[in-house]
Amino acid sequence: MPEQPYEPERAIAGTGMGGQMDLGASEAVTLEKPPGPDGAAPEDKPRSLWSDAWHDLRRNPVFLVSALVILFLVVISLWPSLIASGSPLKCDLAKAQEGSQPGHPFGFDGQGCDVYTRTVYGARTSVAVGVLATLGVALLGSVFGGLAGYFGGAGDAVLSRITDVFFAIPVVLGGLVLLSVITSNTVWPVIGFIVLLGWPQISRIARGSVITAKQNDYVQAARALGASHTRLLLRHIAPNAIAPVIVVATIALGTYISLEATLSFLGVGLKPPSVSWGIDISAASPYIRNAPHALLWPSGALAITVLAFIMLGDAVRDALDPKLR
Amino acid sequence: MAEPILEVRGLVKHYPLTTGILFKKQVGAVKAVDGVDFHLDRGETLGIVGESGCGKSTVAKMLVNLERPTAGEIRYKGEDITRLSGRALKAVRRNIQMVFQDPYTSLNPRMTVGDIIGEAYEIHPEAAPKGDRRARVRELLDVVGLNPEYINRYPHQFSGGQRQRIGIARGLALRPEIIVADEPVSALDVSVQAQVINLMGRLQDEFDLSYLFIAHDLSIVRHISDRVGVMYLGRIVETGRDAEIYDHPTHPYTQALLSAVPVPDPEARERRERIILTGDVPSPTNIPSGCRFRTRCWKARERCALEVPALAVPAEFRYARGPAAHDSACHFAEEKRVVPPAEEGAGPVQGPSPGEGPFAEGEGPSAGGPGASEGEEPGTVGPRRRGAHREDGEGGADGG
Amino acid sequence: MLLEVRDLHVEFRTRDGVAKAVNGVSYGVDAGETLAVLGESGSGKSVTAQTIMGILDTPPGKVTGGQILFEGRDLLTLKEEERRKVRGAGMAMIFQDALSSLNPVLTVGDQLGEMFTVHRGMSRKDARAKAVELMDRVRIPGARERVRQYPHQFSGGMRQRIMIAMAIALEPRLVIADEPTTALDVTVQAQVMDLLAELRREYRMGLILITHDLGVVADVADRIAVMYAGRIVETAPVHDIYKAPAHPYTRGLLDSIPRLDQKGRQLYAIKGLPPSLTRIPPGCAFHPRCPMARDVCRTDVPPLYEVTDAPSERGSACHFWRECLHG
Fold first, then answer.
1. Residue of A56, B7, B107, C104 with fewest CB within 10 Å of its CB?
2. Looking at chain C, which residue has its C-alpha nearest residue A37?
3. Contact partners of B by the rule of 3+ C-beta pairs under 8 A?
4. Considering only alpha carbons, which residue of chain B is nearest residue C185?
């Protein structure tokens, strides 16, 4: 008898786990599903797309940096007073355009308001618009697109034409026209406008992804068992079709933030006395020669925020779709 | 004769070809299935063979109500199920289940094995009381030769053969009477195919199942089927008992098909007559008039273009009682043996003393085999199990 | 010998360690001979072929040892440029999936003609004429008209013929066909195999046929090499192996296929699953599934023993080949 007979069955039985993780790999010749580390019994923890994605994301520096930035943004938009003691609306014209000084690291803008405080408070608007608009867009788009993709037929044809129409509307021009008639000075009209123009994009993605998912044999198998439409959609199709929607929505979030800034810059988004990076950029642009810092800080914050969300979306896409790597 | 459990009459499925975006106009049709009749008796296996695009998978989908027939009847115990809906349809579905071809796409990757198999009970709550379901799923895993402990695993943790076992367990969950299997082993490796085929054979005895077994591999179909139907371009062209079709084919297409199958016996190379068909299968949008096989048939004459041959016992064999007297849709049917008869006892392996040694049928592995798998051979096999065969190897080997 | 592979080793780096796809494979093909390499997925049969052709993806693949002698020259020591010259003119490959192996945006005439404009420096007009001639030779009806068509306008069998035409365009001495008919229907499969056999005779090419189908092998091969877990477990002339295999794996495979000419009873099934290439069992890789395995099989890797009892030249990598051979 050799010292260590190779008995895979027994070895695996001893750990109380199965040794099947590697079997897929043995069938597919090469590089697919991982067994556990050599010799050891593979972990029994169920692995899914999400856990695999999380495994990849945790090791991705792009994801870590962007997630940290976003976390920071969310925290300061919920509790801006944590790092800014003053009020963004307390301005002193006498200090207009002054540079950095103790207690006011970013200096003052054309109205004599503290740029640091306004930049911190501006995050709230941006994050609120970005997150709420994305939620609205994703919800509306995936419901419409998902249903159209699933049921097909005339409804699908009509929806596809409607999305074509929306794609034809120039965003900024549409914003100038639609938002200029609204007097309310809250984030809601801006969010509403973004949702209105944004959902067709998600709807297309969701539609395509549902059409792909519904052709899978496991959907047919569930249908053959007699599963209802609700069950098919929620249990079989949605979990397998949601990944592209999440990816596109994350990337879109960044662009929505910049869209809000654009609209506010143009004077049709938020208006003073609301606080928004777009308003500040707009207000500071006439004084760019004398007080560039008043333009620099809100613009910088905006750029970093948008970049963080787009990078996050990229990282999530890579993790969810290994084929794109 | 007892009433067949399933009877199909004049089954047709045409997919319309349309143009236009909002206002569609039909410009033609893909005639995937174009008038198919057959019946399935209780406890038997009907094999359907045919090349890709012949419509065999579409027939399967209509039987389990994944596609609605354009015309025709599917009678389950005398009742036409094509017009059923709602509760009545759901009740019939319990009794006709399907096993899919591709074990990689037929299991939802986001669900555990327990959820995949147990979903049948969620959809049909009357089939099993709530507290009982997990136990039933475990039992099913055991029956198909998988370790019941794997109930919480995800499909990708299994090999192809094991996944197909999961697919079979799902098909069995509702204790159906009929299983429609669409190419259940064609995606598997040769050594694993035999395991799955043996499993299906055992389950048929154990659960008194009737199989409709669809495949392109003629050897496998012969192995598992009692009767065989040969499909070409949306129709069955010849049907009969397995020996009638394989040893006494009368339709030229069947003869060509059989003669083309490579036989794993190099000695047969010289003895075999090969019928090499010319050309390709015509498009199902544009089916030839008369006999649909005539464009590739070496026997075709004028009559073949004018008259559609009926699927019936050809006139020349009608009064002869013999294996050639079976349904064949050909005007000029004649018997022709294309598969050379196997020599007596000529299994592919001929030891000096057949029936002995480790490879003899029904014998377990000899001493010294990896013992761990032995005791784990998935137990609960019913009393009607055929002998102590070795088909559980795959499940057993990792059943530790 | 036209091609001789000697003790070839190929590894793949994977997330979970090194997958040993090919572990010391040796085989040879003579001019005019058909060698069938038989194995299931993961046996290393395709990786060996890709290595011979020099189309192995590196990384993740890596040749870690061995020689590939083609007409006496070791291909593994050649520079990439010289190797490219061998491909096409010296050896060519036919793939399983003809649709994805042909460029969808070029006509088949352009793709066939390219072989001549690139390798032979012909003018476009001459190359086009050559393309028509080739399509005639692989018996594509209406070659003169169809030369201007795109791959998707051909049926599966016709596309495979185009692949074959491309492979034989420069009259190579060796053709490697990797599952050339697996994707085809059985009646078309017979047409394509017939064509391949005829061309092989006509040009006296060596043919390596990679397949998992024991039926196809019996129909066309002269010699056969059975692979399992990256090794050759048995090699023999095709008539002998079907009569009396000398390795339990070959024997199990032959017993496990249903037959067309007789009604099967219970099929023999090889128990268990092929091993993961990252965790090949020590000793004989087949021992966990082998009904004849003994202690020595778990420790000692069996060499390819010469099967001395047989009248022909054969080998078996089983410690107990004699027992297996004699039942």
1. C104
2. C16
3. A, C
4. B51
In angstroms, the Cα distances linking B245 to B252, B327, C260 are 11, 10, 11
C282/A contact by beta carbon, under 8 A: yes
Q: Would an 8 Å CB–CB cutoff place C19 in contact with chain A? A: yes
- Mean pLDDT over A79-104 rounds to 78
Interface contact B372-A7, CB threshold 8 A: yes
Is the pLDDT score of A20 beyond 50? no
Closest partner residue to A224 among B66, B153, B156, by Cβ? B66
The Cα–Cα gap between A296 and A289 comes to: 12
CA A148 – CA C255 distance, rounded (Å)? 51
CATH code for the domain in which residue A171 is found: 1.10.3720.10
φ/ψ of C291, rounded to 5, equals -75, -15
Query: Which residues does chain C have within 8 Å of residue A34's beta carbon, measured at their own beta carbons?
Result: 14-16
| CATH at residue B177 | 3.40.50.300
Residue C78 falls in which region: left (phi positive, over 0), alpha (psi -120 to 50) or beta? beta
Contacts of B65 in chain A (CB under 8 A): 224
Q: What is the pLDDT of residue B21?
A: 61
Q: Across the strands, what pairs with C4? A: C28, C69
* Single pTM value for the model: 0.78
* Of the candidates A190, A180, A178, the residue with the CA atom closest to the CA atom of residue A274: A190
Q: Are residues B105 and B63 in the same domain?
A: yes
Find the CB nearest C298 among A6, A34, A35: A6
* Cross-chain residue pair C279–A39, CB shorter than 8 Å: yes
Count of beta carbons in the 10 Å neighbourhood of residue A14: 12
**Using an 8 Å Cβ cutoff, are B176 and B209 in contact?**
yes
Residue C286 in contact with partner chain A when CB distance is under 8 A: no
Same domain flag for A31 and A146? no
Strand order in the sheet with B25-40: B25-40, B6-19, B71-76, B79-80
B101, B174, B398 member nearest A12 (Cβ): B398
pLDDT classification of A44: cutoffs 50, 70, 90: very low
Q: Give the number of A-B residue pairs with CB atoms closer than 8 Å.
A: 134
- CATH for C3-325? 3.40.50.300
Say which of A6, A22, A34 has its CB closest to residue C282.
A6
C276 Cβ under 8 Å from any chain A Cβ: yes
- Contact across the interface for B223 and C263, Cβ inside 8 Å: yes
- Residues of chain C above pLDDT 70, percent: 98
CA distance C195 to C193: 5
**Residue C262 near residue C315, CB atoms below 8 Å:** no
Residue type, C143: A
Cβ within 8 Å, pair A28-C42: yes
Cβ-based contacts of C14 with chain A (< 8 Å): 25, 30-31, 34
Shortest CB distance from A26 goes to which of C46, C60, C273? C273
In this structure, what is the dihedral angle of CA atoms C166, C167, C172, C176, given to the nearest 10 degrees? Answer: 170
Band of residue B126 on the pLDDT scale cut at 50, 70, 90? confident
Structure tokens at B357: 């040694």
Do C298 and A36 count as a contact with CB atoms less than 8 A apart?
Answer: no
**Per-residue pLDDT for C57 more than 50?**
yes
Range of the domain at A10: 1-45
Q: What is the mean pLDDT of chain A?
A: 77
- Among residues C36, C191, C194, C213, the alpha carbon closest in space to that of B217 is found at C213
- Omega within 30 of 0 (cis) for the link into C59: yes
Same domain, B221 and B265: no
Q: Which of C54, C38, C273 is nearest to C179 (CA)?
A: C38
The boundaries of the domain holding residue B292 are: 250-328
pLDDT, tens digit, 9 for 90 and up, residues B198-239: 899 999 999 999 999 999 888 899 989 999 999 999 999 999
